[in-house]
């Protein structure tokens, strides 16, 4: 069985596009992008909030992005004579630079960005500080089909998506100026999705975001075994959902959201790029089971955010552990949790559902999905080739 194939090309305006072909498919030539496109937007600016010690990006070009287009004008479908989409040719999984990015297209190798990047740290920023929002934003298309999500893909396709996440994490971690890589999927209009096409994104940040900084601070306070100790505690508790050879899924003890799941690696692995083929094979199956279980919870597609928590590019590589986190604001079949005053202003969370009860409901939903939409086994030999 041939392995996952990775090939790289350029779009008409110079943006990079990377194709990942499912294992077992034949090599195919790629059609060039013949569109006439406007120049890429200028790199946005990020401003420093001295009260929260956070950077806020001002990316006004995002105001013009496509919003819920009809299927015949899907910008993530393969190009056709009537649809000048972003992807020139047919594909299995495709990753390309976002046309309206929150970060980039400038990087630390550009003259302007390089001049200020060394000062673009939380510690050295102050009132009125502003910097170019250098970095990279990419779109990850899970399928050429207009409708669906990650959970609707085959195991073979999910394995290709996992490969794309891992290899793009590796590539973006090597881009000058990028300090954190974050692959994620937004699913559902309730979350704010603007395209129905099954896809996710990858952000390469020019700083370590607040969530990861807090995790790193917790590791420094607790000790380097923080993730190991959390996993040991959860595996002995009542909130485990699925336990594999390399990963365990559980509802965390202090879950904030009505639906919240963490899938944590058993060994210390800092990011997807450092996973083995065996770990990626298992991820393809476990992530599908979890995604399908979420949809079985209310017998309807569940709005969610699924994101990979990874170690920063240059620090805490030996103690921040790869974790997939899924959260949904749906607290009942017809009700959503809204982040009102306490959560939004004070950051003081109030959980609507007991985590143990939530775990029991999710176990039942996963069992139901395993019966009605079982995840097929993955054939061996699905590693990667690079061209």
From TrEMBL:
NCBIfam families: galT_1 (TIGR00209). Belongs to the galactose-1-phosphate uridylyltransferase type 1 family. Keywords: Carbohydrate metabolism, Galactose metabolism, Metal-binding, Nucleotidyltransferase, Transferase, Zinc. Pathway: Carbohydrate metabolism; galactose metabolism. The keyword Transcription does not apply. PROSITE patterns: GAL_P_UDP_TRANSF_I. It is an enzyme of class 2 (transferase). Residues 220-327 form the Galactose-1-phosphate uridyl transferase C-terminal domain. GO terms for molecular function: nucleotidyltransferase activity. It holds the Pfam family GalP_UDP_tr_C. Its EC number is 2.7.7.12. SUPFAM superfamilies: HIT-like (SSF54197). Residues 20-46, 367-387 are annotated as: Disordered. The lineage of its organism: Bacteria, Bacillati, Actinomycetota, Actinomycetes, Micrococcales. InterPro entries: GalP_UDPtransf1, GalP_UDPtransf1_His-AS, GalP_Utransf_C, GalP_Utransf_N, HIT-like_sf. Residues 74-209 form the Galactose-1-phosphate uridyl transferase N-terminal domain. This is Galactose-1-phosphate uridylyltransferase. It catalyses: alpha-D-galactose 1-phosphate + UDP-alpha-D-glucose = alpha-D-glucose 1-phosphate + UDP-alpha-D-galactose. The keyword Transferase applies. Its cofactor is Zn(2+). Residues 30-39 have a biased composition (Basic and acidic residues).
């Amino acid at each position: 069985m041939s392995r996952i194939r990775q090939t790289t090309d350029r779009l008409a305006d110079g943006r990079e596009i990377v194709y990942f072909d499912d294992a077992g498919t034949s090599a195919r030539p790629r059609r060039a992008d013949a569109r006439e496109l406007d120049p890429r937007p200028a790199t946005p600016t990020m401003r420093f909030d001295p009260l929260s010690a956070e950077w806020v990006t001002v990316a006004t070009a995002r105001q013009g992005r496509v919003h819920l287009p009809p299927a015949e004008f899907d910008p993530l479908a393969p190009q056709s004579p009537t649809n000048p989409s972003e992807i020139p040719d047919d594909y299995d999984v495709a990753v390309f630079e976002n046309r309206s990015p929150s970060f980039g297209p400038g990087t630390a190798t550009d003259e302007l960005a390089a001049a200020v990047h060394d000062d673009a740290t939380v510690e050295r920023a102050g009132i009125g500080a502003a910097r170019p929002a250098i970095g990279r934003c990419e779109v990850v298309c899970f399928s050429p089909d207009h409708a669906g999500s990650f959970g609707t893909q085959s195991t073979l396709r999910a394995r290709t998506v996992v490969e794309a996440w891992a290899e793009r994490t590796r590539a973006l971690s090597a881009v000058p100026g990028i300090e954190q890589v974050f692959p994620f999927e937004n699913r559902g209009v309730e979350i704010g999705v603007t395209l129905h096409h099954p896809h996710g994104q990858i952000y390469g940040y020019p700083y370590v975001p607040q969530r990861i900084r807090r995790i790193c601070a917790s590791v420094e306070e607790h000790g380097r075994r923080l993730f190991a100790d959390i996993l040991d505690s959860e595996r002995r508790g009542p909130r485990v959902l699925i336990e594999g050879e390399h990963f365990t899924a559980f509802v965390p003890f202090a879950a904030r959201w009505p639906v919240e799941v963490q899938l944590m690696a058993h060994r210390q692995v800092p990011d997807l790029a450092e996973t083995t083929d065996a770990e990626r094979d298992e991820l393809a199956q476990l992530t599908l089971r979890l995604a399908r279980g979420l949809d079985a919870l209310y017998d309807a597609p569940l709005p969610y955010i699924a994101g990979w928590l990874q170690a920063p590019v240059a620090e805490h590589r030996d103690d921040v552990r790869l974790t997939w986190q899924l959260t949904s604001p749906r607290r009942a079949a017809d009700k959503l949790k809204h982040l009102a005053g306490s959560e939004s202003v004070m950051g003081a969370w109030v959980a609507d559902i007991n985590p143990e009860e939530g775990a029991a409901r999710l176990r039942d939903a996963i069992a139901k999905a395993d019966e009605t939409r079982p995840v097929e086994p993955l054939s061996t030999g699905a590693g990667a080739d690079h061209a």
